[in-house]
Every structure is written in C-alpha cells, then in structure tokens.
Design goal:
With 184 residues, this protein is an alpha+beta fold. It is 43% helix and 28% strand. The protein has 2 domains: 47 residues, no CATH class; 124 residues, START domain (Alpha-D-Glucose-1,6-Bisphosphate, Chain A, domain 4, 2-Layer Sandwich), CATH 3.30.530. The longest helix is centred in the C-terminal third of the chain and has 23 residues.
C-alpha cells in the first residue's frame, strides 16, 4: 500500500538504497555480463529525480485576511501574547512569551513554533512548524486601530496545499473566530 502523504517515502527510500548498492557494484555486474550497462541505472535515476521533483513541487500557499476584533490593539496584543489571556479566549493552556527566539505552544500542542519578532501592541511574527517541511511557515499578525476596535492583518505563508483549507478554517473559526467572540 502506497502512502498518500509526501512525507511518507519509505518505498522511495528503499528504491534509493537498492539503487546505491547496485550502483556501487555496477562495473562488476556489467563486466560479468549479469547486468545491462544502462537500462536499470538510467531508469532508476530518472525515477528518483522525478520523485524528488514531485516532492519539491508540492504546492505551498499563503493565506492573507483581515479580521475586525471589537477591542483596542493593546488589548488584542495582550490576548495574543500572554498565556493567561490566551487561556481565557481559547479555553486551553498556552506556552507563550514575547522573547524573540522562544518556543510557543497553543491548543495543547496543536500549534507549535518559534517566536521571531514582536512590536508591542502592533505586530507579532512567528514561525509555525510542520513535520518534514523544509521551508519556514511564517505567521505575521499586524494590529491596526479601527473605528470598531482593531483590524488584525494576518499573513500566513508556506502552508502545505493539503492542509490549506483546514488552516483557513482554523484561522476563521478557532483562532480569530474565538477571539472575536470573546470580545463581543
């Protein structure tokens, strides 16, 4: 049974190991007449390159949206950065502080990453971790004063295509949805 997830490549790794073993003794096998000179090695090399290209070509998407939160930017900033205020609107314990380079964890470890930068009452920049993802997934939240409270500008980059819809819904319903409900 083949894995549908590109992170699960045991079959590809097995082929690559066999390829490397045979490649190391290719000259002896060809000299003994036990193996044709090119067919297997050229095909397996093309197969491995095609698999690598497929993995590299996995679509990454960015999500950008504005949310109106009925609270002042200072209040929203505190709600997003202090563990006890995060717990008030999420109902979950949180690990968070505003020290750049510190790790964070939200929703019982469902969201984990590293805090990159903070601008008090204005901006939060974080790197969110996805298993096996080489490119950084960066979340930037900018808080702007708005006549109804705060306009929260969200940009989440490099979301793997296969989880994009779930993340978009999560931002709308769980993250900003709950925050907006908390202040309403």
């Amino acid at each position: 049974m083949a894995c549908s997830n590109y992170y699960c490549n045991w079959e590809n790794d097995f082929i690559f190991i066999i390829y490397n073993i045979l490649k190391s003794c290719q000259a002896e096998l060809v000299e003994a007449g036990l193996f044709p000179r090119r067919c297997f090695f050229s095909n397996i090399g093309r197969l491995r390159q095609a698999q690598a290209d497929t993995i590299k070509a996995t679509t990454m998407k960015d999500f950008k949206k504005y949310y109106i939160v009925p609270a002042q930017p200072e209040e929203v900033y505190l709600a997003l950065t202090l563990p006890h205020t995060i717990k008030l609107w999420t109902g979950e314990d949180a690990e968070m502080n505003t020290e750049p380079g510190s790790e964070f964890s939200l929703w019982e470890g469902s969201i984990v990453g590293k805090n990159i930068a903070f601008e008090k009452d204005k901006k939060i920049v974080q790197q969110w971790y996805f298993d096996g993802q080489e490119e950084a997934s960066i979340v930037t939240i900018k808080l702007h004063p708005h006549k109804q409270g705060t306009s929260a500008e969200l940009l989440h980059t490099n979301i793997p295509d296969e989880v994009y819809k779930d993340f978009a819904e999560g931002w709308d319903e769980s993250y900003f949805g709950q925050l907006i409900d908390f202040y309403s």
